[in-house]
Specification:
Helices cover 39% and strands 21% of the residues. It contains 13 helices and 15 strands.
Length: 348
Amino acid sequence: MKIPVANIYYLLAYAWDKLPESRFTQVNADACATPLDLLAHLLVGGTAHLFKKGLDRSYREQEACMPAIKGKLLVGESLHGLAMLQGKAVCRYDVFDHDVLHNQILKTTLNRLSRVDALDRDVKKAAGNLSLRFHEVHEILLTKPVFSQVRLHRNNRFYGFLIAICELLHDNLLPNERTGKYQFRDFLRDDDQMGRLFEAFVRNFYKRELAGSCKVFRENIAWKSAATDAKAVALLPRMQTDMTLQFEGRKIILETKYYKDVLARHYGIEKLHRDHLSQVFSYLKHQVTPNNAESASAEGILLYATAGQDINVDYPDTLGHQIAVRTLNLADDWKMIRMQLLEILATK
């Protein structure tokens, strides 16, 4: 699916719920030729902005063997290592410096970017120079769990956007053990990654754009089953919506799909995906309806990401629900995409 790089910028900013922070990077997304160019410019520009503001510092624990007691004396470690016989002690104490996890991730990722052959030479040089400016910061071994260990707060929330970029780069930069360099895997070709990004993009778009008039959340729906056996109930799969939109007097269950082909072929004839329709129908059928008019008349929307194919069909059912199938053309101008997302909810 061919998506303009400028639209990828908005897709990521909304998906990560970092739209305000992303505006500080001052990157012309239209001038970026590839997703890798975009991510590199965003990270380099954002890190340069960080240095202008001042890198974040925090307290962290450190252990060291020293001639004087500082902080907490570790008696066992001091005796075991025979430090006391040398007139020293092992102590644990707090230090306040820049060598914190979010700076370590930035430095390590910038260093990796400087070793990506496909990246513009000037951007690689800028990434390498920025990594050298993290004087007190150590590089670390980046693994997927490391990113979930980052703890940010209101005063350093700008890091959230940059750490999200680092994580996406980590997922898609493949090392060459022979040369020590990296090759970028285009995440736009990975339907699983893009499916998660598209879902988060749509959900956070509505959260931000409809704030105050609509509650947007993921909903767990209970099975309408008479089974009482605990083992049998435990085997039932979880029904969780991609997003539920709760207006006053109106409820919408919206499921997003990111597929190369919106329609499936059955004996050479194009049809909607049966499983996708059945999923939405099941969510509507299992709504808790007693004394709840909104649930009784809940609507379902199947929203497909496309780059040209246009589908706009409705299927009312006999239970009082309606299922709508819509497409969102991610190749359109961003203003058109925004308008389409709002219009999808306006039709009833």
